[in-house]
Each structure stands twice: as structure tokens, then as C-alpha cells.
Design brief:
heterodimer; A: alpha/beta; 4-stranded antiparallel β-sheet; B: MetI-like fold; two-stranded antiparallel sheet; 77% helix
Chain lengths: 345, 329
């Protein structure tokens, strides 16, 4: 089990997870092929990758929120809250009691669209109360008091009145705050945020990120933060995992990964970020060549082979091993095992 | 909310006025009136009618006067609770129809209740377990229910009841209870007769409700708020019932309004076939004999049912859906 230095025991460990979608008239699609992630209490792990690489599917798999046609044929999702015996969420039954006891209470989730992710015909308060009534058996009155306190804590002005409001009566930012309050209602140990700021404007985005950081300091939960925005990663994450076409290709601390990206895909990602520079010093952005292949055209070996400038003989057929490049920083690339690190950078 | 209801109410009154004009125009449409056909039938049998009697009747009802005068007489009478006289039955219209209309509303109301009770669980099941055996059965049953005409289903039911159990279905009461006062045995007698027509009346609507509910619910089940509800740790049945079902019902509730009148007009043939003392057959007969006040009153009351039904569903919808309650000033 890979351990991150200076961190306490991991609370959630995903190892070698694969997610397969089956459909009656097509061949199965392995949307997520190989995911290894480790979450530690009080830390934020950002999961980055382009659209369709399997970030959201991975996040949903942790709470087993995937559709009926998805299955997790391989790998494990070990949830181990402080000192207790680990539970493999990947092996729990859908809609079973142990799974429902984890959902919302110990691991909770914030979604991307704060409008459509809240029920339009129930009040904000009603939707938050429900969590505490369900998991902690509070009486509705007591639950409402906690809800109001929570709404206040996430920075919603006039919390008591706003608890009576319906989602469509609030602005996007307030709705996302309400969503966060809901996720935190039962003080979970793991918070999964699935692109929580993507649908918001930049100012609101910054406020929500600040709020999440603040709340993490207060509650001490581990956070899995899904995003495609490297700027957001730099702002909120302690660690970052890069995903490409269903594989986690690299994981490490934000500083290491940003300073010394070890996988060609991460390197390409980093060089596609525009930088502020004087006119004379400006360089053209270098986009990653080619397009993301469909999962069924993915090579057996490293998924990035078809677009990788350094691809060589074993890449297309042999899956690269997870290689430690120092300081708990891992990457999956044949270059790392074949040549010294400096040849890559 | 109160403003919304008042607004709806005023709209309803205006609609009623318009409806009454149209209803009156419709019963005036056929050439001639009841008196001409009455005189014609009397002369045919060789009887003589006292011209003064006819003159009296003419002036009493304003027959032969311009449309708006007749309409005004009719409407002012109705406002005072006088629906006029039935020419054919020689009795006040109100006396004739209120019992029949009562049975109509009772039967069709029960049919609506049965419809919802049957369609709700089946529709939900069919959507949640899409493409399962149960879903296919519900679909097949639904299509059959939609496709078989009500009266035909009534005939089949009556035939089966007679050949298998030797009982005749028809009417709403056994002879000994026909004119009795309401009592427990009479209610029992009513129910033992009424189940068949209620079943017949409910089939088409049930099938339709199942289809609509299934389609609505399938749409709602894909919405992100359902995932949110699951992520909260709610048990699956509660997730489905509290969130998507609640939203899938909205379009259905808005149709309660026109369910009632559609049932009333749709039940005419069933009522004739099953010999039910409801308003449908009486409307049919009054139209053929040009018994204009009787026909007019029934048409008007059916329209009132529609309009009131719509008002009720509007209010229900506003009550259940805050987006309507607070949306659009």
C-alpha cells in the first residue's frame, strides 16, 4: 500500500479499480481501467483530467451512485474511518444498509449543477433536515435548528428565512452553498466534490473554494475534488491525481506534480496552460496533438500511446507499472523504468 | 397564493359565461323547436292542440323571440335556480337531472379514484423496473386497455358474468333498493352493482395514466437531484417516492380537470349498454327530441364540471409545485 509521507493513515484507498458499462446491443465499455487513489483526513486530493476521462464516474463509484448498467469488476474501494475495520465499498450491495449508512453520513458528495441537483419542489431546509433525521434520528425541529446553523456557517445570509426558500429562489452561488451545507450536515469524514465550481462565475468560484478550504479546516474531513481546471487545483489541492482515458497516470503532491510532471500527458497538460508574459517573450501554446481515442480503441498498454511524443516499443502493448519517482510521487510510464528521470524532464 | 386563486376564480366565471352562451347556441342549432315537433306529432295522431296553450308556452319560454332574449330568460332563470321545464317529461329540469347527475359524478368519481389507485403503483413500477417482465406486462395490459372500446369491454364483462356466474350485470341497484333510502345494505347493494361499470369506465383512463406516469417518471429518474437523494443515503423506495414521483405527478394533476367531463361524455354508451341511471343517456335522448332546456342544463352542468375541475387542478398544482405558486407574478 503506497503511503504518502507525513500523512496519517489514509481514510479511503482506491486500488486498481475498473468500471465497466454494459449495454444490451454493444460490447462492454471499460470507462475506468485502472484507478489508484488515496485520501487522507484533512487533505484535499484533486482529480484532474479532460472531459470523458472518467473523473466523475470514479467519484460516483465511491458512493456507488452509478447506473445499474455499470459494474466494478476489479479493484477495491477501502473505506477505513479512524481505527475501524476497513469496508470495501466496491463489494457492498447497491441499496444495502451498510452502504446507505456510509452515504451522506460518512462520505458525502457535492455535485456540479447546484440547480438541477436540488429538488425544485422541496425547500432547502427540508432537503437538509432530511439528512439528519435519517442518519442521526433527530426530531424535525432539532434538525431544522442545525440546518439553520449550518446555512449560517456556509455563509448564507438570513439563514432562517432561506431555509424556507426553494432552490429556484436562490442565486447559483447560494444554491451551491446550500448544497455544501447539505453535504456537511452529518459531518462526514470524506467529502467528494464533483466539479462544484464549474457552473459558477469566477468570483463566486473563488468564494466557494475559500469556503471549502475553511470548512475543511473546521471539520477536518478528507476531500476528493474533481475538476478540469488546473488553476483551481493549484488553489485548493494538497495532492493531485491526473487521469487520462480511464487511467490514473500520475499522483503526487501538488508541488511535485506541477514542478516536475513525470508523465508525458501531465507534461503536455502543463505546457497547454497559458502564462502571463511580455509580448516579446510570448510563446504559442502547444496543444496536445491528436484527439482522445474512444475507450474501445484504447491501446492495451499505456492509454496515451497514440498521442505521446516519446512513445516507443512496449508502450502500446504493455501496461506501465506504477513507479515511485520520489516523495510519494507516482507515475505510470515506461520511460521512468527504462531511462533515468532526467531524460524525460 | 390567495391572489392566484382569486385570479383563477375570476377567469373561471368569465369562462362560465362564455360556455353558457355556447351551450345555449348549440341547443338552438337544430331547425325548429320542441313545440313544432310536439305539434307535428300531435297532428299526426289527429289530436288538436289548443292554440292558446301553445301561445302560452311560446311566450313563457320566449320561443320565437330573438336569440339574446331567449338566452337572457334562460340564464336569469338558472341564476335563480330555475333550470326551466323539460318539455318531454313535463317536470322541472332540476328535479330530473340532479339524481342522475349525482350518480354520474359518484360513478365517475369512483372510477377516477380506482384509476389512480391502480395506475400509480403500476406506473411507478414500470418506470423504475424499465424493460423488466412486469414493465412489459404493464405495457401490454395498457395497450389492450387503451385499444378496447369501453362499451365492448362492458359487453364482454356482462357476457362472462352471465355465462360463468349466471348473474346479470346492469343497473346500479337491485329492484328492492331502487327507491329506498341510503342505508348500509343499500350501499352494499350499490357497490355490488357498481364495481362492473366502475371497472369498465376506469380501464381506458388507467391505461393512459400508466403510460403518462411511466414516461414522466423515466424522464425525472435521470435528473441529478435523484442522484443527490441517493447520495444522502435514503433507501431507494424513499428516493423514488419523495423526489421523482412527486415531480412526475405534476403534469398528471393538471389533467384531473378534464378527466371528469371526458369520463361523463365517454360513459354515455357504457351507460346505455349497462343500463345505468346516469346523465349520459338522458342527454342523448333530450338531444334527439329537442328537449332544449333539459339538454341545455346537462350540457351547461358538464361544462361547469370541466371548468371547476380545471380550477381545482390549477389550485392543486399551485399547492404542490412552488414554482407555479411563486413564479410569474
Amino acid at each position: 500500500m503506497p503511503l504518502i509521507p507525513m500523512a496519517d493513515k489514509p481514510i479511503l484507498t482506491i486500488s486498481d479499480m475498473s468500471i465497466v458499462f454494459s449495454s444490451p446491443d454493444e460490447a462492454d465499455i471499460e470507462a475506468v481501467r485502472q484507478v489508484d487513489l488515496t485520501l487522507t483526513p484533512g487533505k484535499t486530493l484533486a482529480l484532474v483530467g479532460e472531459s470523458g476521462c472518467g473523473k466523475s464516474v470514479t467519484a460516483r463509484a465511491v458512493l456507488r451512485l452509478l447506473d445499474r448498467n455499470a459494474s466494478i469488476p476489479r479493484g477495491s474501494i477501502l473505506f477505513q474511518p479512524g481505527g475501524e475495520a476497513p469496508t470495501d465499498i466496491a463489494r457492498l450491495k447497491q441499496d444495502s444498509l451498510p452502504l446507505r449508512a456510509i452515504r451522506g453520513s460518512q462520505i458525502s458528495m457535492i455535485f456540479q449543477e447546484p440547480m438541477s441537483s436540488l429538488s425544485p419542489v422541496h425547500t432547502i431546509g427540508d432537503q437538509i433536515d432530511e439528512m439528519m433525521i435519517l442518519h442521526e434520528g433527530l426530531k424535525p425541529k432539532a434538525a431544522r435548528e442545525r440546518t439553520v446553523a449550518l446555512l449560517d456557517q456556509v455563509g448564507i445570509p438570513g439563514a432562517r428565512q432561506r431555509a424556507e426558500a426553494y432552490p429556484f429562489e436562490l442565486s447559483g452561488g447560494l444554491r451551491q452553498r446550500a448544497m455544501i451545507a447539505m453535504a456537511l450536515a452529518c459531518t462526514p469524514q470524506v467529502l467528494i466534490a464533483d466539479e462544484p465550481t464549474t457552473a459558477l462565475d469566477v468570483t463566486t468560484q473563488a468564494q466557494i473554494l475559500d469556503l471549502l478550504r475553511q470548512l475543511q479546516a473546521d471539520f477536518g474531513m478528507a476531500m476528493l475534488f474533481i475538476t478540469h481546471d488546473l488553476g483551481v487545483v493549484a488553489e485548493i489541492a494538497d495532492e493531485v491525481a491526473v487521469m487520462y482515458l480511464g487511467d490514473v497516470v500520475e499522483q503526487g503532491s501538488v508541488y511535485d506534480v506541477f514542478a516536475r510532471p513525470s508523465h508525458p500527458y501531465t507534461q503536455a497538460l502543463m505546457s497547454s496552460i497559458p502564462k502571463m508574459a511580455r509580448k516579446a517573450e510570448r510563446v504559442r501554446l502547444s496543444p496536445i496533438k491528436g484527439t482522445v481515442p474512444a475507450p474501445r480503441d484504447r491501446p492495451d498498454g499505456c492509454a496515451f500511446t497514440s498521442r505521446c511524443p516519446y512513445a516507443f516499443e512496449p508502450c502500446a502493448t504493455v501496461r506501465p507499472e506504477r513507479t515511485d519517482v520520489g516523495n510519494g510521487h507516482h507515475a505510470r510510464c515506461h520511460l521512468l523504468t527504462r531511462q533515468p528521470v532526467e531524460a524525460v524532464a | 397564493m390567495v391572489g392566484y386563486i382569486i385570479q383563477r376564480f375570476i377567469a373561471m366565471l368569465l369562462t362560465l359565461v362564455a360556455v353558457s352562451i355556447v351551450a345555449f347556441a348549440i341547443i338552438q342549432l337544430p331547425p325548429g323547436d320542441y313545440l313544432t315537433s310536439y305539434i307535428a306529432s300531435l297532428s299526426a295522431t289527429g289530436d288538436q292542440v289548443d292554440p292558446r296553450v301553445i301561445e302560452n308556452l311560446r311566450s313563457q319560454y320566449g320561443l320565437g323571440e330573438p336569440f339574446y332574449v331567449q338566452y337572457w330568460k334562460w340564464v336569469t332563470g338558472i341564476v335563480q335556480g330555475n333550470f326551466g321545464h323539460s318539455f318531454e317529461w313535463k317536470r322541472p329540469v332540476w328535479e330530473l337531472i340532479w339524481g342522475r347527475l349525482g350518480y354520474s359524478i359518484l360513478l365517475e368519481g369512483l372510477a377516477v379514484v380506482v384509476m389512480w389507485l391502480v395506475a400509480l403503483p403500476i406506473g411507478i413500477y414500470a418506470a423504475v423496473r424499465k424493460y423488466s417482465l412486469g414493465d412489459y406486462l404493464a405495457t401490454i395490459g395498457g395497450f389492450i386497455g387503451l385499444a378496447v372500446p369501453n362499451f365492448f369491454f362492458a359487453l364482454i364483462l356482462m357476457y362472462l358474468a352471465f355465462t360463468w356466474f349466471g348473474t346479470t350485470l346492469g343497473g346500479l341497484f337491485s329492484p328492492e333498493f331502487e327507491n329506498a333510502r341510503w342505508s348500509l345494505p343499500r350501499i352494499w347493494d350499490f357497490l355490488s352493482h357498481a364495481w362492473a361499470p366502475i371497472l369498465v369506465l376506469a380501464t381506458g383512463g388507467t391505461a393512459e395514466l400508466i403510460r403518462i406516469l411511466r414516461a414522466n417518471l423515466l424522464d425525472e429518474l435521470k435528473k441529478p437531484y435523484v442522484t443527490t437523494a441517493r447520495a444522502k443515503g435514503l433507501p431507494e423506495w424513499k428516493v423514488v417516492l419523495k423526489y421523482p414521483v412527486r415531480l412526475a405527478l405534476n403534469p398528471l394533476i393538471s389533467t384531473i380537470g378534464w378527466l371528469l367531463p371526458a369520463l361523463v361524455s365517454g360513459s354515455v354508451i357504457v351507460s346505455v349498454v349497462m343500463n345505468l341511471p346516469t346523465a349520459g343517456p338522458m342527454l342523448l335522448r333530450s338531444l334527439t327530441t329537442q328537449d332544449m332546456y333539459l339538454a341545455g342544463a346537462i350540457i351547461l352542468l358538464l361544462s361547469v364540471l370541466t371548468v371547476v375541475g380545471t380550477l381545482i387542478s390549477d389550485i392543486l398544482l399551485a399547492w404542490i409545485d412552488p414554482r407555479i405558486r411563486y413564479g410569474g407574478k
